[in-house]
Amino acid sequence: MLLIIDDDSAIRASLAFLFKKEGFEVKAVGTPTEALEVLRAERPELILLDLNFSIETSGEEGMRLLRQIRAKYPAVPVVLITGWGTIDLAVEGMKAGARDFITKPWQNDYLLQSVRTILNLAQQVPQSANRQRLDQKYQFEHIVGQDPKLLEILETVGRIAPTDAPVLITGESGTGKELIAEAIHRNSKRRVRPFVKVNLGGISSTLFESELFGHVRGAFTDAKSDRTGRFELAHRGSIFLDEIGELDLSSQVKLLRVLQERTFEPLGSSKSRTVDVRVVCATNRNLEEMVAQGTFREDLFYRINLITVKLPALRERPGDIPLLAEAFVNNLKTIYERPALRLSAAARQWLSTLRLPGNIRQLKNLVERTVLLSGGEVLEVDDFQKNLPATPTPSAQGTLPEVGTLTLDEMEYQMIRRAMEFHRNKVSKVARSLGITRFALYRRLEKYGISYDAES
């Protein structure tokens, strides 16, 4: 049974009709007193609560009722209904324990989708993670590992994938956030629809609207023809918004509106378009700290993280390092036509002791570099050690290496490492000192698997 709490009889009737038509049992009440009486008599599966009972209370009565419900009936999920003008109130409600918020005027499809998602998540019971059972039940063939932390994450991914819940994937650079996003899509009901990837860290604020929402011919000087935006390309599928922590505040507002209302206007057009997408975001930054610092909108934060998946660093699951290295070697066998290529037992053991600040990406680069430069078919510890980038000694830092002793990539790696150490991992200062943009530096940090201060 769904319980609708709203002082407007027209809204109560509209919502009741919508959900009854979809097969739900519904009860609708107009006051907090009536709502508490219903709750004392029976337990609803979900509550739809309008925060604004009257103009005078400005949401205070609704917030008070929400806190009472959360205190007495914490297992019952609550979805808030509020106007766009009082979205700050909805954020307060999310802090108080509401599961989602919908703004008026709502879209029926989106409201139904939100309710079904929350009910599906509430009904699913986690099972003990086992790799064989997970592989039989889900499509995780591109994800390598047996560590309990990883298996717990895959269990969560398998449970949330069939829903339309927005997911926020966090973790250090190189931990495999894109692979997890792909797994969510591949195991969802949208699997046959598009999966569109967007690296927000590589899109300037001036191009944000055109890239994500498209533009019409003549919208700006170089707009020679219409362009379809990423959201429209992802219609009925999933969109992966990587590096969402890199968005500036003005772009965050524009993104929030399309996530909230599921409508957008291409740049230069006055005609709204509706889009149906499942949103998966990722970041290596601490969004909660950014919210506290005022650099990331709190309402956007609550909109994207109904479910949060935190990926462990590779050093936290060292037993998976040899498995990943072997998977990379097996893939390179085919690419470079070296069928006898394999890791020695000693190399497998040695690799598991590496710290690998660049995580899976750094390991992959190390393995491929070693395969390319090794003449033997059995990769030994020495082969890998020769291909670990060397950290320059203090006495050698003022001199240039002899020609032929380092590749251009290795020189670039060392220069970036030295700049990072000198500027204490402050990315903005390092980028300025090297004469490149922050985004260009981020790409090189990921390329070489160099860890950095994500809040810099």
Automatic annotation (TrEMBL):
Signal peptide from the UniProt entry: none
Keywords: ATP-binding, DNA-binding, Nucleotide-binding, Phosphoprotein, Transcription, Transcription regulation
Species this chain originates from: Rhabdobacter roseus
SUPFAM superfamilies: CheY-like, Homeodomain-like, P-loop containing nucleoside triphosphate hydrolases
A molecular function GO annotation: ATP binding
InterPro entries: AAA+_ATPase, AAA_lid_NorR, CheY-like_superfamily, Homeodomain-like_sf, HTH_Fis, P-loop_NTPase, Sig_transdc_resp-reg_receiver, Sigma_54_int
Record Pfam families: AAA_lid_14, HTH_8, Response_reg, Sigma54_activat
Modified residues (4-aspartylphosphate): 50
PROSITE patterns: RESPONSE_REGULATORY, SIGMA54_INTERACT_1, SIGMA54_INTERACT_4
Protein name listed in UniProt: DNA-binding NtrC family response regulator
Occurrences of domain Sigma-54 factor interaction (ranges): 143-372
Any single biological process term in GO: regulation of DNA-templated transcription
Boundaries of every Response regulatory domain copy: 1-119
